[in-house]
Amino acid sequence: MSAADGDKPKRPPHVVIVGAGFGGLACAKALGGAPVFVTVIDRRNYHLFQPLLYQVATAALSPANIAVPIREVLRRHGNVRVVMGEVAGVDLERQEVSLANGRQIGFDRLVVATGSEYHHFGHDDWAAHAPGLKSLDEARAIRRRLLAAYEEAEAIRDPARQAALMTSVVVGGGPTGVEMAGAIAELVRWTLAGEFRHIDPKQSRIILAEAGPRILPGFPEPLGRFAERALADHGVTIMTDSPVEEVTAEGVRIAGEFIPAATIVWGAGVKASPAARWLGVETDRGGRIPVNPDLSVPGHANIFVIGDLALAIGDDGLPLPGLAQVAKQQGEHLGRALRRNLVRGAPMPPFRFRNRGNTAVIGRNAAVFDFGGRLFKGRLAWLLWALIHVYLLVGFGNRLLVSLQWVWRYFTHERSARLIS
Amino acid sequence: MSAADGDKPKRPPHVVIVGAGFGGLACAKALGGAPVFVTVIDRRNYHLFQPLLYQVATAALSPANIAVPIREVLRRHGNVRVVMGEVAGVDLERQEVSLANGRQIGFDRLVVATGSEYHHFGHDDWAAHAPGLKSLDEARAIRRRLLAAYEEAEAIRDPARQAALMTSVVVGGGPTGVEMAGAIAELVRWTLAGEFRHIDPKQSRIILAEAGPRILPGFPEPLGRFAERALADHGVTIMTDSPVEEVTAEGVRIAGEFIPAATIVWGAGVKASPAARWLGVETDRGGRIPVNPDLSVPGHANIFVIGDLALAIGDDGLPLPGLAQVAKQQGEHLGRALRRNLVRGAPMPPFRFRNRGNTAVIGRNAAVFDFGGRLFKGRLAWLLWALIHVYLLVGFGNRLLVSLQWVWRYFTHERSARLIS
Fold it and tell me: Which of A152, A336, B199, B323 to pair with A390, CA 20 to 30 A apart?
């Protein structure tokens, strides 16, 4: 790194990474310490462990337990700086990212890793009544509604209204919906039971509504069947072939029937973030940007897209799913590839996804795990799930805190974060 | 409790407690299991451990770490119910509390324990720029401002504006102000240092402004002097004889000088909550309601006031200070007294305060402790402070989590709750 051997010091190449999710952060870490200047831009000051957001929404964990400051994660890499800001656009010609505050940041390589959000099948007005599980604000909103509904039910005497307040509907039978429905069931049937004098939270109704013929469509059928039985045992009513027709402040209409419900959670219909517009490129129907095998954008060799925003094709010829492990592997791969490319001029190798297993947890002692053929379910899958999720949490302090809270909750059913804020 | 011995079952007497702070909760617990019906009314669903709010404001703890659901604390007492609601008034004639939602709750005995809030010396417009430390919302607001200021300072290049963004002013040299100033110093000089590339958080300015001649006026002078030295060692500038003359969005004016500052915290001028208006009684200048030795309100033998709202006179003839330990002892005393009075007809005994020691923490290894004559300072006082505060936290789960986070922070300087939300 010394310029003492007579060479004139060159300005190091600049890699700009937009988004500090699983993909962006892995990419930045892989570039840490390299003779490359890296800027990570994110709207928030923290990296969020999205797979555990439903535990914040159901008061099992605090927001800070699943969020770690981006600066803390990257502090030891002197060549990486963090900018908290909103990206407004990209000037492809001048190779500049412009922020909403007017600032311009030039780049030699741009990595776009801005993820995805839920979309409400074109009904934007539904979003206010049925928050998704993508941000801490949404998780806090769900927690507030859920807990406040039981407070209101305790305070009133109208049985019909009480029943509506004690009804939750989760839309979408994928892993997020399954985990959310299971967690709500545990919250109301165990934690809240016994704390009220006028209502019995055990009489709550929790509905998981799936438009398709079965839940967990991304998993082998035996695991989907196991999840249905386990959810039913936990007190969740599963409605398949039941697309949602309407969402209002009062409830949802499913298959012609209006179900009054105070808490509605949206876990269906993922859409990529609107970053494609910055690049002026075509996307698929879900807003994803098709990428080359090396994750670059066709026609833009210096621009890369990773994570939920990327439409990358796997070895089986199918698009890779929008999973944390895909984003993380892409980020690591791209960071290492850029490092070799920018430092030694090595070519950019293609990305290959290695499936680490697909999982969903239903509740206490019940989860499913699919390691591409080898299937696990029940208590063993649940233990595996917990170990792996604690291991994947960024930051050792958070790992300790989350483990402790899970062990505590397992034995006491107490939940540490039941704030109506 | 059986009605089998021929007596007609009587409706048990009804005690209504407004406010689930230290006083109200202690009173409810002392009445738990008695042949008395108890209703606890609070605006929030959680009891807040206010003495540690400054640790939430400085990102050391999560809101949920210092809050515990009121229902959880009281769940095992079947005779106690919890109502989440806002009290709108009290009908003394009909012995009814009316809630903002229109509901009426009758009582045989009423305990008012609604605490105090900060007041900005008659300048209500200052409150928006200088939040106090009374609620989780305020603590979150301070945390957000503090952390966002350093993000902004890193993003801009104007040195004067950077200096303002890296300046914090804490108003009030009592325990709250001292603890807040010390905690800000630790946050910026240890945790944030090394995470920025364009600013050096160690160059931050932290000012503790006190209107009187010295800080910690409620403590013996040697402890006040120790605190001044310890704060100076931590990088805090102490300004005594420095009443605040103006607070704006840009900073504060103290002794004619305007100090540009992004973060202003208010810790001076406590005022009792406006509950006196419900009872139509006279208060002192601080809004406190004078009480009889048995904590009842003169002229209203069935109404009691405890905690920060009560103006109770101690053995030394002086008003008891607004401390958690005073409220807690009053609540315990009143709960036990009401129990004996309502069940056995025993007279209401007078309350006597027993001083358990007065403490303030400055930072790492530095605290002061006054046990009414025996003074401790430095590392021993700091250890005592930590042990006692963990012990006093409600809920064993929270004790574990807080202890773990303190030990973690002591060794790593990492803070677990650095969210800009």
Answer: A336
